[in-house]
Amino acid sequence: MGNIIDTIGNTPLVEITKFHTNRKVKIYAKMEGNNPAGSVKDRAALNMIRSAMERGEITKDSKLIEATSGNTGIALAMIAGIYGLSLELVMPVTSTRERTLTMEAFGAKVTLLETMEICRDYAEEKAASGDYFILNQFANPDNYKAHIKTTGPEIWRDTAGKITHFVSAMGTTGTIMGNSIYLKEQNPAIQIVGCQPTEESSIPGIRRWPQEYLPKIFDPSRVDRIIDISQKESTAMARELVSKEGIFAGMSSGGAFAAALKVANEIEEGVLVFIACDRGDRYLSSDLFA
Predict the structure, then answer these.
(1) How far apart are CA 154 and CA 171, in angstroms?
(2) Phi and psi at residue 34, in whole multiples of 5°?
(3) What does each of the 290 residues of the chain score in pLDDT, given as a tens digit?
(4) DSSP 39
(5) Cβ contacts of residue 16 below 8 Å, gap of 6+?
């Protein structure tokens, strides 16, 4: 027995059965919405806070600040609350109301600004003043190291080492970087596939960053292929996942699934795993499932 932190990770791997007919190609969803704060970001948030505390970079008196599109902020709010840490989260004003309310329920202060880029600048400016400690998920190696420690080994174990393709949305890129490092160490032939929005699309949790905001932890050599996914495709696949497979996940999960299907339709055999990164109830006030 332990506390809520001990329930982070070891999420289920669920087979997709209704979308393709080639029995030699298996698609699995890594159900990250089953984490206690509802997303894959629980892993990175825990590793970033715990590692900073172990190094003595933050103490009980530290004031933390972080820019987030939502899931990392919710995870940080939960974990900061458990450790008794002060936390301000800076989020785009377009974020769903559920996200703000959840962060506040966990005890965080929430500041809403115009765009994600402005949120990042604001958080970095406040940290530069010396009064705040920024975890900086976009440049923090502890973000991707969480997946070397946990997600990658779980996927390798649960596919009995048979995984051929790993598919993930790319936001901070921590998930795809960490899993790429671990899985390629087990089998260099595993294909790492990322997805990003088309130029005109807006998909929460997936970004097409301007060059000056590209996450510093991102190493393009660790991604074998990047697939552009439209907002329409992401929305349609999120709706299809819940109606046909009973997998209630958000738009970025729909985007990752759309990319996985594209790959599945190109190969004769293989085992594909995509990250279903959060829960669909985080989007009920939007038109995602309308």
Answers:
(1) 21
(2) -80, -5
(3) 678 999 999 999 999 999 877 889 999 999 999 999 999 999 999 999 999 999 999 998 999 999 998 899 999 999 999 999 999 999 999 888 888 999 999 999 999 998 888 999 999 999 998 889 999 999 999 999 999 999 999 999 999 999 999 999 999 999 999 999 999 999 999 999 999 999 888 887 788 888 888 899 999 999 999 999 999 999 999 999 999 999 999 999 999 999 999 999 999 999 999 999 999 888 887 878 88
(4) B
(5) 27, 28, 29, 245, 257
**Residue 44 dihedral angles phi and psi, to the nearest 5°:** -65, -40
Q: Would you say how long the chain is, in residues? A: 290
CB count within 10 Å of CB 157 equals 11
Angle in degrees, CA 233, 251, 261, rounded to 5: 45
141 vs 161: CA distance, rounded Å = 26
Instruction: Provide the greatest CA pair distance for the chain.
Output: 57
What token pair was written down for 87?
A: 């936390």
How far apart, in whole angstroms, are the C-alpha atoms of residue 8 and residue 35?
Answer: 5
Cβ partners under 8 Å of residue 8, min gap 6: 35, 36, 42, 43, 46, 150
pTM of the model: 0.93
Residue 2: both structure tokens together: 């332990």
Which residues are designated catalytic?
41, 252
